[in-house]
């Protein structure tokens, strides 16, 4: 599955700096010797080959660590890479970016092919500060501590030790007292650690502010926009997005919640009433074993498109799936790219709920993205895909895959699964706006106290909130953001989900009109990888990169109509 290397020695130990450094030395000396455009293009590919080897080493260690957060060897290997390899790579990468940026042949490179790479590398040169390297290392370590803490939490539930992930299914139980018991146990367990979460966050916030100041930015928000290569939208666009979500989506969310309240026969909704089926049907149980989950997903991908099905089949054969939940496994799900093999890997915590099916469809969409662009000669176009579009790939797959929910369920249960998912789409957008607006606030109010931060949070929870009664659990509400890993591990990375969700709903709307045409555009857009700017990627997939009410209104209408059809 690996193509032979052309530049990097085949026996390179990518975890040993003494062996890595000479590769950077060679690249530095060779770039000066490039006499022609093809020489420079070849050098860019050599550089990409080294990047891929290092990237894959880091990814493999991350995968091993998150699969076994309680394995000391895996933790040590990951931390070695984070603390001793990564920090040494960064200044060397920066030096190469600088040599590239200053190269006399750079303006002669074919513009269309290199423009995205070019603007990315220019930002790398513009933002790099030596003194930020140790701060970033410290931040990564704090992120890992957050994950370790969050992943280690368990509760005693009816005589058994359960992870918080395993507890999620009980809030779907029809028995209201049981739901409340399970919900309170989890909420209180998290609250016990609230001080630790706040401490961890404050340390990270401090590091982030320093990082931005070193790079001459007035605040971390503006720094992060540049660092995340958000060339195609601004903080002001995000504020407009928040407003449009409030205006267009909140009325639908409130309708759905009052319907839920009526169906449950309650005078008010409590936090443990949000995940249960409103007709008090037992939770959907799409599968018992991970093998059944994989087989069902395979059938869905096969029905959508033969090449998607074949891609998933390959992942199964190459053991690129780690799907079951067990103690010591980090929370959540992700798709990681093995950059040199040019293959995807999927990690998740399946426990037997519909959400697991959606997670696998979602991560499957990411995996198809990785596979679709694996032939691109440029490392950066295969691996540095803009998240705003990556999430279109994954979230579209949730919506499209659910069209074939019958692979897991009877017809009425399939409609239920689809309805639950569409309700989630309606619910997630205000949540994205909340988290994003909160981060805007955090990073533009330096020196704020924890009290002020909580007050800002509550204001947003009210604005994008629902009609849930939190009486008696105000402290839980104050600290709800602690469970959102992005704030800790990927700062300011969240609005992407909202922008992408709107793209995904557009792909789904296209699919409803024209199955084959929508899938064709979807795959063509995925094959572009990171080679084009965002508006072009969206356009290739048949969507608008615009988040004003004019784009959002028809999507809300479609969601409302579909929900009405599903009963
Ligand atoms: Zn994703």
Brief summary:
The chain is mainly alpha-helical and 567 residues long. The chain has helices at residues 17-32, 37-67, 72-101, 111-127, 132-152, 164-167, 176-192, 194-214, 220-227, 235-264, 290-304, 306-317, 354-372, 379-383, 387-402, 411-444, 450-463, 474-478, 485-489, 495-513, 515-527, 534-540, 549-565; strands at 154-157, 160-163, 321-324, 334-338, 343-350.
What does this structure look like?
With 567 residues, the chain is mainly alpha-helical. 66% of the residues lie in helices and 4% in strands. The protein contains 23 helices and five strands. The strands form two sheets. It has a three-stranded mixed beta sheet, sandwiched between helices. A two-stranded antiparallel ribbon has the order 1-2. Helix 15 packs across helix 20. It is globular. The termini are far apart. Zinc ion is lined by residues 362, 366, 391, 394.
């Amino acid at each position: 599955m690996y193509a032979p290397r052309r530049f990097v020695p085949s026996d390179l130990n990518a975890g040993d700096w003494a062996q890595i450094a000479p590769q950077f030395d060679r690249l530095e000396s060779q770039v000066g010797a490039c006499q022609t455009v093809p020489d420079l293009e070849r050098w860019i590919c050599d550089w990409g080959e080294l990047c891929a080897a290092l990237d894959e080493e880091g990814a493999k260690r991350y995968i091993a660590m998150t699969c076994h957060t309680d394995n000391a060897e895996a933790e040590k290997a990951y931390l070695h890479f984070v603390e001793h390899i990564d920090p040494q790579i960064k200044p060397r990468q920066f030096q190469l970016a600088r040599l590239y940026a200053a190269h006399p042949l750079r303006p002669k490179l074919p513009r269309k092919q290199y423009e995205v790479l070019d603007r990315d590398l220019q930002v790398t040169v513009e933002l790099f500060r030596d003194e930020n390297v140790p701060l970033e290392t410290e931040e990564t370590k704090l992120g890992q501590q957050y994950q370790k803490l969050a992943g280690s939490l368990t509760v005693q539930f009816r005589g058994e030790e359960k992870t918080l992930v395993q507890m999620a299914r009980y809030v779907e139980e029809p028995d209201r007292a049981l739901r409340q018991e399970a919900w309170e146990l989890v909420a209180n367990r998290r609250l016990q650690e609230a001080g630790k979460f706040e401490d961890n966050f404050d340390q990270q916030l401090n590091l982030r502010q320093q990082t931005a100041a070193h790079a001459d930015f007035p605040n971390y928000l503006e720094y992060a926009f540049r660092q995340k290569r958000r060339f195609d939208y601004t903080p002001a666009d995000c504020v407009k997005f928040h407003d449009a979500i409030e205006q267009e989506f909140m009325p639908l969310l409130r309708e759905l919640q009052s319907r839920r309240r009526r169906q449950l026969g309650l005078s008010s909704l409590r936090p443990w009433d949000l995940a249960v089926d409103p007709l008090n049907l037992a939770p959907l149980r799409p599968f018992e074993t991970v093998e059944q989950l994989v087989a069902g997903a395979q059938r869905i991908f096969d029905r959508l498109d033969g090449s998607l099905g074949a891609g998933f089949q390959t992942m199964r054969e190459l053991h690129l799936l780690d799907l079951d939940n067990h103690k010591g496994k980090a929370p959540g799900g992700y798709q990681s790219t093995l950059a040199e093999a040019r293959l995807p890997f999927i990690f998740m915590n399946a426990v037997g709920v519909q959400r697991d099916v959606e997670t696998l469809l979602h991560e499957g969409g990411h995996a198809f993205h990785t596979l679709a662009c694996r032939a691109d000669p440029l490392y950066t176009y295969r691996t540095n895909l803009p998240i705003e579009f990556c999430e279109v790939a994954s979230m579209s797959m949730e919506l499209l895959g659910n069209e074939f929910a019958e692979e897991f369920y009877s017809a009425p249960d399939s409609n239920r699964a689809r309805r639950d998912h569409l309700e989630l789409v309606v619910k997630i957008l205000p949540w994205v706006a909340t988290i994003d607006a909160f981060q805007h606030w955090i990073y533009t109010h330096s020196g704020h106290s924890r009290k002020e931060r909580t007050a800002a949070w509550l204001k947003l929870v009210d604005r994008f909130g629902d009609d849930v009664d939190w009486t008696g659990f105000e402290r839980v509400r104050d600290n709800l953001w602690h469970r959102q890993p992005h704030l800790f591990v990927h700062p300011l990375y969240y609005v992407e989900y909202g922008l992408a969700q709107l793209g995904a709903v557009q792909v789904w709307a296209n699919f409803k009109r024209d199955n084959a045409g929508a899938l064709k555009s979807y795959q063509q857009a995925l094959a572009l990888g990171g080679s084009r700017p965002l508006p072009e990627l969206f356009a290739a997939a048949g969507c608008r990169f615009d988040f004003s009410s004019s784009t959002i209104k028809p999507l809300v209408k479609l969601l409302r109509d579909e929900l009405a059809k599903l009963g």
